[in-house]
Amino acid sequence: MASLGAVAAPSRSRRESVAQAIILSGPAIFLAAFCIMPLVLLVLLSVAHHDEGTLWAPAFELTQYRQLAEPTFLRVIGFSLFLAATSAVATLTIAFPAAYFISRMRRRAQVAWLVFILGALSLSEVLIVFAVQVLLSTSGVLVKTLVDLGVMASAHSLYPNFGAVLTCLVYLVLPYVVLFLYPAVSRLDEEMPQAAATMGASPIRTFFLVTMPLMRGPLVSAAALVVIFTISSYLTPLVLGRPETWTVGVHLSNTAMEAGDVPLAAAQAVLLVAAIIGLLALVRWIGRDRSARA
Amino acid sequence: MSRNLISTGAQRLFMGLVAAFIATPLVVVAGVSFNATRRMSFPPRAFSLTWYREFFTDADWMASLRATLTISACAALLAVIVALPIAYAVWRYRSKVSQAMAGVGASLFLLPGVVVAVMFSALWGVTGHIGRIENVIVSHAAVFLGIPLSLLAVGFESIDRGLLEAARTMGAGETDAFRMVVRPAMTPYIVCALAYVFVLSMNEYLIAYMVAGFTIQTLPIRIFTNMRAGYEPTMCVAAVLFMVVGFCVFGALAAIGDLPRLMGRQRPLHD
Fold first, then answer.
1. Assembly ipTM
2. What's the pLDDT tens digit per position in B201-245?
3. A192: three-class secondary structure by DSSP
4. Which residues from B are below 8 Å from A41, CB to CB?
5. pTM for this prediction
């Protein structure tokens, strides 16, 4: 019996690995061609030679990377990081309590909220930017209301400026962050907050003193998500902001599409990807450090 | 007790404000689309469907709508076709190869849209295959691959392995077990993955623009081009169309599948 099993096992595992190879061959080709190849190409482009006529020629030079250290680009990075930090704080302030409250609702209300948020999440950035533009324009409802209330002296457009960019970015990333936090808050242990409540802490106090520290890991990851989204945002700063409120994302696509300097755009992209990998590693490290100490 | 009441009230107020924040721009655009005048005024002065008629009889808008729907449907199908074998292999064989493939497949979804757009425009440029509709389809499928990978993984994990074992013990072959247990269990998850990628692809602007924007005007590209050129009421109609499709698709998903679970809730939710 035992020997029979020993003989059967390798043949079964061989059959399984053949089956697996057959199943996975198609997806493997797709991944190699359309996920790995573009990444490799991006790195190759970033060290290629920029040529006005043919856009780029294969080479190995670090000209583009040297250009990244120019003060104008460093200022763009600095501003993008500031914008990213501001929108991360603003988004989490809204998204975390929202996700928490949603996860405590009854099933019907919860499903309705999820549909609402998924619907908002799927809406094109083009659409949201356009809607915000309509809302903030001189003839828009918001300006009229503010003038009627006497808050604004005369009707003028509420964009382009930093506030409009920030509001629109928060709007765009909010659904992602709520859905990102949703699994974590729905897993949250009820016992600790209940114990705090029994001992007389108000629900709001319990929320800030007990619930929030328990969520440190997911909150840090969510903040990273907002930072990644913000520094690479394109349409929002382009339409609702001025050139000084343009992010790395806007400069990157302008370099590629308008200046036609594909190698420089590739180098900017490589820098962005490297920064994101670094950020995610940092987030992971923070998360692990906390759980090890707890 | 009264303190509890206050905090419930505060919670209601907060969620009301969040709902208002999310709904306001959408309500404004929808309202403007029903305006009788060409002006961009809200609330609408007089109700009319003029711009809807204009939108649906305009050859350019219709060409964009067709292109957008073609791209989204094909991208959704392609993404699910690629993701399904990977997710299946991860669940069935638990092999390192399949797990690595799932990781690679999900990676583009984490990268910024601008980076992905530059990457794909370079890829299609190098291959000399420029400005074609299939460029957008393949690029979208690759970018959104992470969605079906994670949704289908949730689906496979929900299948009772005992049930599968029972089917085998009762003499069902691999194919029969697959047909009787795996396929029915997976159908809602596949539908969800298709719908999710469809909606995201339909709304995507930057990649479509950088990869083939000069030859194929998808709806988001056309809306953006119009927006830069000046206000046009038909844009609002296109915008309303997007909202209706998005909310209908996710509403339908909530009706056929367990949405809280799909979104990652692990504790069962009663009532």
1. 0.86
2. 998 999 999 898 888 999 999 988 888 887 778 888 988 988 898
3. helix
4. 119, 122-123, 126
5. 0.86
